[in-house]
């Protein structure tokens, strides 16, 4: 069995090793076995090499050199791109401001809403309008009703 076909490595590494060994063994005096040579041109032979192996090494080196040149050029053009700095805002954002911490904003909103629903306070101090806890308001409406509610609606509610 030929060395190129004895590789038991799976995947890309085994395939690449087998191909590399096959390319290096091309052209070492082996000719294909042909029992029937009659009727053929003796000047025509099996082509032993399509592409020289050194060409792949040269192309790989050129690609690596090009990638390295691009990376070094970008580092020289943008020297501050690799430094890690705190890029926080130094001036406040204009309105409307974006939320920087939505869960904390929602928690504050929920706390304020619950405090307003369950506490006493002024809705409009100049007009003398206050707010009371919702449980207290529901109890008062159930006991006394709504003063300016239509009379026929009160009767329908009692049925």
Q: What do these coordinates show?
A:
This protein has 159 residues and is mainly α. 48% of the residues lie in helices and 4% in strands. The chain is built from five helices and two strands. The chain has helices at 11-25, 53-77, 102-118, 134-144, 151-158; strands spanning 121-124, 129-131. It has a two-stranded antiparallel sheet with strand order 1-2. A hairpin with a 4-residue loop joins strand 1 and strand 2.
Alpha-beta content class: mainly alpha
Oligomer classification: single chain
Strand content: under 5%
How large is the count of helical segments? Answer: 5
Question: Per the principal axes of the C-alpha atoms, what is the gross shape?
Answer: elongated
Rg measurement, Å? 43 Å
| Major sheet size, sense and barrel closure | 2 strands, antiparallel
Number of DSSP-assigned strands: 2
Task: Give the integer mean of the pLDDT values.
Answer: 79
Order of helices and strands: HHHEEHH
> What share of residues is helical?
40-55%
- Arrangement of strands in the largest sheet: 1-2
Q: Regions with pLDDT < 50 over 5+ consecutive residues?
A: none
Distance between the termini: 101 Å
